[in-house]
Amino acid sequence: MNHAAHNTMEPIYEGKAKRLYTTEDPNVLRMEYKDSATAFNGEKKEDFENKGRFNKAITLIIYKMLEEKGVKTHLVSDMDDINLLVRKVSIMPLEVIVRNVAAGSFSKRMGVAEGTQFTKPIVEFSYKDDALGDPFINDDYAREMGAASEEDSAYVKKTALLINETLKEFFLKANLRLIDFKIEFGRLATDPTQIVLADEITPDTCRLWDVETNEKMDKDRFRRGLGGFMEAYAEVLNRLQK
Ligand code: TMP
Q1: Which of 38, 97, 123, 184 to mutate to test the pocket of ligand 1 (most atoms within 8 A of CB)?
Q2: Which residues, listed in sequence order, are joined to residue 122 by a DSSP beta bridge?
Q3: Which of 113, 114, 134, 132 is nearest to 124 (CA)?
Q4: pLDDT digits (tens, 9 = 90+) for 90-132
Q5: 203: CA distance to ligand 1 center in Å?
Q6: Residue minimizing CA distance to atom 8 of ligand 1
Q7: Which residues contact 15 (CB under 8 A, 6 or more apart)?
Q8: Can you tell me which atom of ligand 1 is nearest the CA of 104?
Q9: CA of 28 to the centre of ligand 1 (A)
Q10: CB of 85 within 8 A of CB of 6?
Q11: How far apart are the C-alpha atoms of 123 and 160, rounded to whole Å?
Q12: Which residues line ligand 1 (CB under 6 A)?
């Protein structure tokens, strides 16, 4: 299949930052990373040149590293500057957030200063539903909403904590402090009993602070209008490639 053919194909799903397309293999999809940035549930929106390219490259590096550490993911292979091939999954309607340091909605909700180190990581769940504003839920809600059984919630939490330890160490080598992040999991189309890490891991979905200066190197630059947004993403990619 050539590039022109790809571009004429209708997406089967379009999200705020990515599109999904079918391929000849019914169990493999093409995931295209878009140049758009959104915040506050899509209220703030802008396109940034190269954003898709940076986020695809960053996700690829991180997913390959996680696979090497034994984390099962939806990644099949790299494709081109803005596309990855991924296994078809049914995304669990859960946003799994891990926090090492207080920031963002935790700081706002709890009145705790951003930058306050936690004694142990916090794992929290949101129910993935834009119309409801992705409400904060626990594993009992997840069970009753049919989002995840108790067993699945426990598995997802344990896996998220393992991913956190691996990511923390990986980012630290790039002089980046992993403050918090959001991940999603999916059930394989070929075997729904298997839950794998799906979706992106990028500065859109992580808070990353420079170890020396505490400078924000993530989407908070866009959310908070700090400037230097794509410069920060370019710098994160550059450090991860070293
Ligand atoms: P929060 O502090 O706003 O709850 O965000 C926690 C982490 O989750 C942060 O790294 C950003 C990420 N995140 C997303 O990836 N998508 C979202 O829709 C939200 C609200 C946060």
Answers
A1: 97
A2: 99
A3: 134
A4: 999 999 999 999 999 999 999 999 999 999 999 999 999 999 9
A5: 10
A6: 182
A7: none
A8: 2
A9: 27
A10: no
A11: 8
A12: 97, 103-106, 134, 180-182, 205-207
Residue 139 predicted with pLDDT over 50 = yes
pLDDT at 5 over 90: no
What is the best residue among 123, 180, 209 to mutate for testing ligand 1's pocket, by most ligand atoms within 8 Å of CB? 180
**Eight-class DSSP state of 130:** G
Q: How far is CA 220 from CA 2, 71, 105, 139, 157, in A?
A: 36, 27, 12, 28, 25
Please tell me whether residue 240 adopts helix, strand or coil conformation. Answer: helix
Cβ count near 10 (within 10 Å) = 8
Q: pTM here?
A: 0.96
* Ligand 1 atom closest to 207 (CA): 10
Q: Which atom of ligand 1 lies nearest, measured to the CA of 179?
A: 10
Pairing mode, strands 89-91 and 176-188: antiparallel
Hey, what are 28's tokens? 């493999």
